[in-house]
Amino acid sequence: MPEHQPAEHPPTLNAEFWEQRYQEGTTRWDLGQPAPSFVHLLTSPDAPKPGTIAVLGAGRGHDALLFAAHGFEVTGFDFAASAIAVATANAQAQGLSAQFLQRDIFALEPEFANRFDYVLEHTCFCAIAPAQRPAYVQLVHTLLRPQGELIAVFWAHDRPGGPPFGTSLDELRQQFSPGFDIRSLSLVPDSPSHQQNEEYFIRLRVKKSAP
Asked: Backbone phi, then psi, for 25, in 5-degree steps?
């Protein structure tokens, strides 16, 4: 896997950048509840069977704790200590078992290689620098067991700057298609107003033939 930080890396790769956002309360990406797409999934006939799941950029733990409540063994990772503290407190308050670790997601190897049946993505991909996306895809592949699955809500917008950094369905296919098969892809019908018609719910499975 390539070195995860260039010599002069953008501030979004620093824990301090995200910690400041939580300290200031400028966390617009935080819905204050689980993503509706995940709620729908877990109550649908196509719900995944409980297993081990890694939540990248877990934040305050809303999505992670939803999966914990449905019997998944959850490990959430985030750069920001404040987010981890709140997520841990939320788990305790809800009587749920989940582990939250303050970690750089690009430094999870080799400790967590092949440890998870699922990886959950929501607002992490758009938060990292675009140059880190190939490393992110490789990370997800490494974390997952054979035939493991990425369950994701991706924000595909074309506005300049970031975070949140823009992407497109074409880029997502280009990044993930070498190692993953698309199980399902659909436009999210109930996104927040500023993300209407820009969010996609996608399930990707590790290819049998992928290295």
From this structure: 75, 15
Other residues' Cβ atoms within 10 Å of the Cβ of residue 196:
12
According to the model, what pLDDT value does residue 7 have? 36
Domain ranges of the chain: 50-206
* CATH superfamily label, 50-206: Vaccinia Virus protein VP39 (3.40.50.150)
Where is 66: in which H helix or E strand? helix 62-69
| Rounded distance between C-alpha atoms, residue 89 and residue 61, angstroms | 10
Q: Rounded CA gap, 124 and 13, in Å?
A: 12
More confident residue, 38 or 190: 38
Give the 3-state secondary structure of 149-205.
Answer: EEEEEEECCCCCCCCCCCCCHHHHHHHHCCCEEEEEEEECCCCCHHHCCCEEEEEEE
* Exposed / middle / buried, residue 181 (Cβ in 10 Å: 0-12, 13-18, 19+): middle
Rounded to 10 deg, the angle between the 81-93 and 62-69 helix axes is 30
How does pLDDT run across 135-175, given as a tens digit for each residue? 999 999 999 999 999 999 998 877 887 678 889 999 999 99
The pTM of the full predicted model, rounded to 2 decimals, is: 0.87
